Amino acid sequence: MRSRVPHVSQVRTHCPYCALQCAMRLESNYGGYAVRGDATFDVNSGALCTKGFTAAETLAHPERILTPLVRRDGVLEPASWEEALDLIAERFLAIGERHGRDAVAVFGSGALTNERAYALGKFARLALRTRNFDYNGRFCMSSAAVAANRAFGLDRGLPFPLEWLDRTECLLIAGGNPADTMPPLGRRLGERRTGSSIVVDPRRTPYAAAATLHLQVAPGTDALLANALLHVAVAEGLVDDAYVAARTKGFADVRRQAERADPERAERRTGVPADDIRRAARMLAAAPSAIVLTARGVEQHRDGSDAANAYVNLALALGLPGRPLSGYGTLTGQANGQGGREHGQKSDQLPGYRDARDPAARAAVATAWGVSEAALGTPGLTAAEILGALGGDVRALLVVGSNPAVSAPAAAAVRAGLERTEFVVVCDFFPSETTRYAHVVLPTLQWAEESGTVTNLEGRLLLRERVAEAPAGPRSDLRVLADLAARLGAPGVLPSSDPEAVFAELARVSAGGRADYSAASHARLRAGETLYWPVSQAAPNGTPTLFQEGFATADGRANFIPADESAPHSEAPDDGYPYAFTTGRVRDHYLSGTQTRRVERLVRAAPEPFVEMHPVVAAHHGVADGDLVRVRSRRGSVELRARVTADIRPDTLFAAFHWAAPRAANDVTSDALDPHSRMPAFKGAAVALERVVPL
Ligand code: SF4
Questions:
Q1: Which residues lie closer than 8 Å to 499 by C-beta, 6 or more apart?
Q2: How far is the CA of 127 from the centre of ligand 1 (A)?
Q3: For labeling, which of 89, 337, 599, 616 is most exposed (least CB within 10 Å)?
Q4: How many domains are there within the chain?
């Protein structure tokens, strides 16, 4: 089977993987594709990483699912679309009738386009009428989102254009490794001509090594480190008092908290030398412009949202947000991690990034949809809670574009839950570790086979046009949801399976919300307009830069949020589990690896997972580089190759999470949740290490 691109040379599209959304050009090439970077798009200026260059290899991949599959006598067998859709509707209705509507849950994805995310949320609310729906972006962005919403009244990953990162005088990145996760951005930051950089990371990554200052923090102590940086700012008179007085509120409490976080005390827990803490605070304060960014290393902890707020507090005290070339932001992960959290794909939120608990927001969306407010339902379980309830309160699950059997925390328990679940439906284009548990698999389209918009890490809307013909068999998520809605007795829920029509409805419904897209359209994006949200009737040309005049809070002031650095760690290392275990990504794979583990060039570049450990740790356990070791937590264990390096702290182990059991790092990670964001503490596990002795 081969998909085809129309025979026009160099069709423009965007990469399917991360939130940088590099532009690329596809060209038909001997029945397949050639991919090159698009130099006209300022985000990547023609650069792509290995994942982008090979992205088209999944389109014509021989393992593609081409027909619906229905489990009969324990085996997934080909079925017609009619049979599969009828069965799903029948089972969802029957389970809902027996156990209540909330027994059917939905698990979506940050990879879905805005149109698909919107449609999935509307489908869950109005066709399934369940309260239990969420998406895997909860694993990735939710703590930073909570922090930004609390502080600024609005969460857009970067509230300024990406190019500010090139030009700001001092750039602090805490818990991010763009050289591996977003290589074109990593390279771009490495080429910064002016100013200084500070990297906060337990690993001395190449990016950290190249920084002006590397703060090699102990995992899970970011709130204390940020408070200590603020302590220095207060103690040394570096706070921008005029800005704090004019543009913020709540500083007094945060200041008192920071005063307790003196650098010497912070050094004992964070492991960062007090002199380096002082130096970092002075660098940020002395720079004419400065940006503070957080990423997953800060956020994927039980106190992730407070830790992110601690960095926001630092930025506010230094007067950065709303100033030229300055501010606070977060590096979004998934392709549409930003847009995926704006359009109602999760039960606590309505389209337009509205709060589902806000009566005014509910009234606006109910009116726009022509339904009663009660029909919108109320917030239900979040992502990890849905997975934790599998086989219990959750009897049926619809998964769209996600592979939680690999990507969820404490993944072995999730797989056991999937096994117990009465009825599992997965919409995907490849078999995955999650489809193994499915009763029905519906084959769907890939990124290049369907038009749709995504919103990149800057809040910029991008149109990915349909540029490849899909093979016969798979259908779009939009069509699947429309057909299922009709079978569930809600035929009018989705206006159409045409992405442009769905976007038009999404834009209309978002009017007045925080993420207002009401003046945006496929036509404008197709015409090449650059649109950052809000793209509202009041700001029809979009808003590249936020917070210049005021914040999106009721009184226009930003909120300082106290960040308690003594909050319990999700799992502090102890005698039985003496190491902090942190996870992340490698350059050549993406998330659960469903796509990238099928691309030969990527597999050759990164064939198997590894665990990084300090030479002192390796010597203590009699481990040599390349040995097989077992990493064990209270939830499970994983066998990995040892990579011995002095670039990691001696109290910390690191592994990438792209591989499936028995090499799944997430079999070890913690499913403790941040109480505000409900984000799992992926980077907050305590583990033991042992060498695997060959038999
Ligand atoms: Fe794709 Fe991200 Fe790589 Fe760019 S950096 S090519 S968007 S995976």
A1: 113, 115, 450, 451, 452, 453, 476, 478, 522
A2: 35
A3: 616
A4: 4
